[in-house]
Each structure stands twice: as structure tokens, then as C-alpha cells.
Amino acid sequence: MYTMKRAAILARLLLCACLLMPGISTAQQTLLVMGDSLSAAFGIPREAGWVNLLQAELQGTHPTYQIINASVSGETTSGAMRRLPALLRQHRPAVVILELGANDGLRGTPTQEIESNLRELIRQSQKAGAKVLLLGMQLPPNYGGHYTVRFKTLYARLAKKQQAALVPFFLEGVTSEQFQADQLHPDASAQETLLRNVLPALLPLL
């Protein structure tokens, strides 16, 4: 009788230990999206945006993750630097997605400044314990060949140096017919493409 009782106690202790293991934990985790209008669903219903589609996708595959979409239309890398520290303290994200830089580029901000700001955003996120996914952007050719090349290449360089995951070009596969009238913002039909661009780089981080 004593042996059976002891075995039952040991079994319960083992079960508790297994439930506390990281791979089995069901504690909720946060994914923070820091982006601009491309992630804030500009010009389309918010529920149709790629971030909302991502939340629906993760509910089936990674139900412990909750997405905080802190994206703001018109956001720049410098604006995100002012907002990020408070968001990191408040939400303690496991993963941070950075979709930034396009507005800086459209304003002609020096690429060294954009790169420096993104580096600091990555550094702060990693210091807070989060894994980082950087979404690469490109500019229209009318901004000049030298500037557009420097802008395009800064994302891959940063991701390599800072050991962040990378989507080389966030808008890859979006056709000209899938942009809104301003030719800058993808419409609702393109949001699934954006989601599929992000998922392969994101899922290994979860």
C-alpha cells in the first residue's frame, strides 16, 4: 500500500514538472507589431488587414499568442523609437515585428539615420527579451537609383548584424492592380499575400 501511494505521489510530481516545462506551457505570450499604415490597415476595414489575418491564423496554430498591433499610419522610425520603450514595459512581448522605414524613405531621410533608428529599435526589443522580425521595404525608382539601392540594402545588412529574422521585401507578390488609388497602400485583396510573406520567417520564432 505504501509503495503504491508513493508511486502515485511521484506521478503527480512528474506531471506538475512536465506542465511547467517551456515546451508544454500554455501561458499567453504577446506578439507586438510596430508598423506604419501598411500594418494599420489604412484605407481598408481593420479586420481585413494582414495583422488581423495573422491573429486568426495563430489561433489555429499557436493559440497562446496574442497580437498587439501598435501600428500607426504615418509612423517613422524616430516616432517608433519614442513609443517602443513604454510598449515593451507594458506588454513584455516574446516577438516584435518591425514594419518601418517606408515613411522615412518617402521623406528622403538619410539612409544612415533610418538604419541607426532601426538598429536601436531592434536592440531595445532584444534587450527586453523579444525575438525580432524585420520586414524589408523598397522605394519607387523615382527617388533616385543611389538612394533606393542604399535604402533597399539596409534591411538585410541590419538583420545580419543584429541577428534578427528578415522578410526581404514585405510587399513581394502584390500586383499593381492590388494597390489603392494612391499607389502606395495595398488593398484588401493583397492582405493575404502580405500575411504569406510574413509567416515563413515568423513561425520559427514562435
Would you give an account of this structure?
The chain has a single domain, classed as Rossmann fold. It is 48% helix and 12% strand. It has 7 helices and 5 strands. β4, α6 and β5 form a beta-alpha-beta unit. About 9% of the residues have low confidence.
Biggest β-sheet: strands ordered side by side in the sheet: 2-1-3-4-5
- The total count of helices amounts to 7
Could you name the CATH topology? Answer: Rossmann fold
Alpha carbon gap, first and last residue: 45 Å
Q: Would you identify the CATH architecture?
A: 3-Layer(aba) Sandwich
Count the strands?
Answer: 5
User: What is the C-alpha radius of gyration, as a whole number of Å?
Assistant: 20 Å
At the first level of CATH, what is the class? Alpha Beta
* Most strands sheet: 5 strands, parallel
Q: Characterize the overall form.
A: globular
Portion of residues within helices: 40-55%
Mean pLDDT value:
91
Task: Write the element-wise H/E pattern from the N-terminal end onward.
Answer: HEHEHEHHEHEH
Secondary structure category: alpha/beta
Instruction: Identify the CATH homologous superfamily.
Output: SGNH hydrolase
Number of domains: 1
Characteristics:
206 residues; alpha/beta; Rossmann fold; five-stranded parallel β-sheet; 7 helices; 48% helix; 12% strand
Structure in a nutshell:
The protein has seven helices and five strands, in the order H-E-H-E-H-E-H-H-E-H-E-H.
